[in-house]
């Protein structure tokens, strides 16, 4: 393995390129026409344009990606997350083209990628399941009534909250089935859906697993990712605030059993719902690197992308379960181009100004740069900000300060919202569940600040820059000198 | 010097003096910073400044263009428009009968037709943008006068999709 094609964009493509470089591998980026100037293109040694903006004409075109690998001389493919990362057919196509697939075996992807087969496999391995069932064209109402409302409609091929709908009563069922089916068909080219009982106030807790091709399979602890909007994670942390040693043992044992059932290799995540009684249920297994992997890296000191690369080369992990140590607490937030004051509607457009935080125990996984235009075609994730602390309160405070040091001007982002979420007293008490945002932030607004109006007025007294902007009033020398010179 | 800044549907009047600023009827002690280096990006002039307001130093990044000023202050963005509120924004604001696309996207479904009587909050159109479906709902009750979208079509940000009167 000498050269890795990264079949992705944004922050994860930048992060993977960095790990490859650290291992002496050259990197090949791919980009669509609107991503020509994207940071992930600059992060790689070579870059190949693979088509127009819509993902289906670029990042989701197998032939274009394999051609790019051939053209640029790549001998391995890293899929990142999203796009083709959980597509067994793509993984097989990569292998059949004689390239190394940096990920789990295609068969494991296929089984866990079909949510129904995954449930069956996990159930056989003794992992507890959420009550749920498949549906045919005609029996949805009867099946839903048997499970009992509220229920969740989920895409069989799903992940990432796409193709998922909550249904409170039978009256909403038809519309939810249709909408979930459409979204699933558009996101995964597979419109099949199934029903699951909706647990009340559950926590989303997941276990990171990592295996090599020599029979070693370990867990790297859990992550709690309960703070979600539209079933997509916003805040992730490890450890889970209510975790006990006994529960961790049971949950990680279950995760390893599920992974073993599909002969798992590389990084994967087994997701559970944890209810208020301390019972947990298998949700799904994500057969890829997870967005929130940095918090696990913070507390274990294990670089998951480095591990993926070593495992793909056929090397042993080099450590066993007893070597894995956990230290302190880490929290990550997802900075997204979306408006939390308007139903999290996505935003797009040029980044006019960008200031990213720095400092000890603060990490920025960024996919944007000043001057880059955030395209409308892709996921609104811009970057991930995470912080480590010796305890949860320290990590939360450190991350909050890092967010206050951040500035993104251009598209509307959730930056201020994230600050308010991690400073909320219920969050600080660890009282998180998947309905947290709906319960505590039903009508969030950013709030006014007279100092902002003062800063705006001061800026308007400055002379216009040589290009572009014009000011509304010509400032007097008195104003542009600034007060301090006059004292 | 007096500056009029619009935010949402309000207009703030800011007056800068030697060591104070007035925002509407509130007076603040202000230590103004010396002009710092500026950069330009796509027609915007960007300046980092620390402005001390009522004794508290505040770090701001300010981007300005002929019609707008964006201020990031302690990780929070305040978007101001310049000049008087001579017209409502294209969206019409709260309670408008003109339902507009909040951003470019694909029309997935149109749920109403001309002549339909709709209630406040009723779903009108399903849009898909950035891979997510969003339902646009009626902000006022009334009768649908026009529908400017069809399933499968694309709409631009700010385009009026449904008119209710």
Beta percentage of chain A is: 15-25%
Strand adjacency order, main sheet of chain A: 14-13-10-11-12-15-22-20
Quick one: how many beta strands of chain B?
17
How many helical elements of chain B?
A: 0
Which structural class matches the secondary elements of chain B? mainly beta
Tell me how many strands of chain A there are: 23
Averaged pLDDT of chain B? 86
Order of helices and strands of chain B: EEEEEEEEEEEEEEEEE
Give the low-pLDDT segments of chain A: 466-487
Largest interface: A-B, 74 and 69 residues
Structural class of chain A: alpha+beta
Largest sheet of chain B: 8 strands, antiparallel, barrel
Task: Please outline the major beta sheet of chain A.
Answer: 8 strands, antiparallel
Rg result of chain B = 21 Å
Cα end-to-end separation of chain A: 66 Å
Oligomer: heterodimer
Q: Could you please describe the fold and organization of this structure?
A:
The complex is a heterodimer of chains A (487) and B (165). Chain A has 487 residues and is an alpha+beta fold. In chain A, 33% of the residues lie in helices and 24% in strands. Chain A is globular. Chain B has an eight-stranded antiparallel β-barrel with strand order 1-2-3-4-6-7-8-9. A four-stranded antiparallel sheet of chain B has the order 10-17-15-12, with no helix packed on it. Chain B has a four-stranded antiparallel sheet with strand order 14-13-11-16, with no helix packed on it. In chain B, a hairpin with a 2-residue loop joins strand 13 and strand 14. Chain B is built from no helices and 17 strands. Chains A and B meet through helix 8, strand 17, strand 23, helix 13 and helix 16 of A and strand 1, strand 2, strand 4, strand 5 and strand 6 of B.
């Amino acid at each position: 393995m000498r050269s890795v094609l990264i079949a992705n964009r944004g922050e994860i493509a930048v992060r993977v390129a960095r790990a490859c470089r650290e291992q002496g591998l050259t990197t090949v980026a791919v980009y669509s026409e609107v991503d020509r100037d994207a940071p992930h293109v600059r992060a790689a040694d070579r870059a190949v344009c693979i088509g127009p903006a819509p993902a289906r004409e670029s990042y989701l075109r197998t032939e274009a990606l394999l051609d790019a690998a051939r053209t640029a001389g790549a001998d391995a493919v890293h899929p990142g997350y999203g796009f083709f990362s959980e597509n067994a057919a793509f993984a097989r196509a990569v292998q059949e083209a004689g390239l190394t697939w940096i990920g789990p075996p295609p068969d494991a992807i296929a089984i866990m990628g079909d949510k129904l087969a995954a449930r069956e496999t996990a159930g056989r391995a003794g992992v507890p399941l959420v009550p749920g069932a498949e549906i045919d064209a005609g029996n949805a109402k009867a099946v839903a009534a048997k499970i009992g409302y509220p229920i969740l409609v989920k895409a069989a091929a799903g992940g990432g909250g796409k193709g998922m709908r909550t249904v409170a009563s039978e009256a909403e069922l038809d519309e939810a089935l249709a909408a979930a089916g459409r979204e699933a068909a558009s996101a995964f080219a597979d419109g099949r859906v199934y029903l699951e009982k909706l647990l009340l106030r559950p926590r989303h807790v997941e276990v990171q697993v990592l295996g090599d091709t020599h029979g070693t399979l370990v867990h790297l602890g859990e992550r709690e990712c309960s703070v979600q909007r539209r079933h997509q994670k916003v805040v992730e942390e490890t450890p889970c605030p209510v975790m006990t040693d006994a529960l961790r043992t049971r949950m990680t044992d279950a995760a390893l059993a599920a992974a073993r059932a599909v002969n798992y290799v590389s990084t994967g995540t087994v997701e559970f719902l944890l209810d208020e009684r301390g019972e947990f249920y298998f949700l799904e297994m994500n057969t890829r690197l997870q967005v929130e992997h940095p918090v696990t890296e913070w507390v274990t000191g294990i670089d998951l992308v480095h591990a993926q690369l070593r495992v793909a080369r056929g090397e042993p992990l080099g450590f066993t379960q007893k070597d894995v140590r956990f230290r302190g607490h880490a929290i990550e937030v997802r900075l997204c181009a979306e408006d939390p004051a308007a139903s999290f509607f996505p935003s797009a457009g040029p980044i006019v100004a960008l200031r990213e935080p720095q400092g000890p125990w603060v990490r920025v996984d960024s996919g944007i740069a000043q001057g880059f235009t955030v395209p409308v075609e892709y996921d609104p994730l811009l970057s991930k900000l995470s912080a480590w602390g010796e305890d949860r309160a320290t990590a939360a405070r450190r991350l909050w300060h890092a967010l206050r040091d951040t500035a993104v001007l251009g598209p509307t982002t959730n930056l201020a919202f994230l600050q308010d979420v991690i400073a909320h007293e219920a969050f600080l008490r660890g009282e998180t569940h998947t309905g947290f945002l709906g319960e505590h932030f039903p009508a969030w607004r950013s709030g006014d600040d007279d100092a902002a109006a003062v800063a705006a007025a001061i800026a308007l007294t400055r002379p216009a820059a040589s290009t572009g902007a014009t000011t509304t009033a010509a400032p007097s020398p008195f104003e542009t000198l600034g007060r301090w010179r006059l004292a | 010097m007096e500056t009029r800044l619009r935010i949402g549907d309000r207009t703030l009047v800011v007056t800068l003096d030697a060591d104070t600023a007035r925002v509407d009827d509130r007076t603040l002690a202000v230590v103004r910073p010396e002009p710092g280096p500026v950069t330009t990006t796509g027609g915007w002039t960007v300046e980092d400044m620390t402005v001390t307001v009522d004794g508290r130093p505040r770090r701001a990044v300010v981007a300005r263009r002929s019609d707008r000023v964006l201020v990031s202050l302690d990780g929070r963005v305040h978007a101001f428009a310049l000049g008087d509120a001579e017209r409502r924004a294209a969206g019409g604001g709260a309670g408008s009968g003109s339902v507009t696309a909040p951003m470019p996207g694909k029309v997935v479904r149109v749920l109403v037709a001309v002549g339909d009587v709709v209630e406040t909050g009723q779903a009108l159109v399903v849009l898909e943008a950035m891979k997510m479906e969003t339902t646009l709902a009626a902000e006022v009750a009334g009768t649908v006068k026009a529908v400017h979208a069809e399933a499968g079509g694309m709409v631009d940000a700010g385009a009026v999709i449904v008119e209710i009167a």
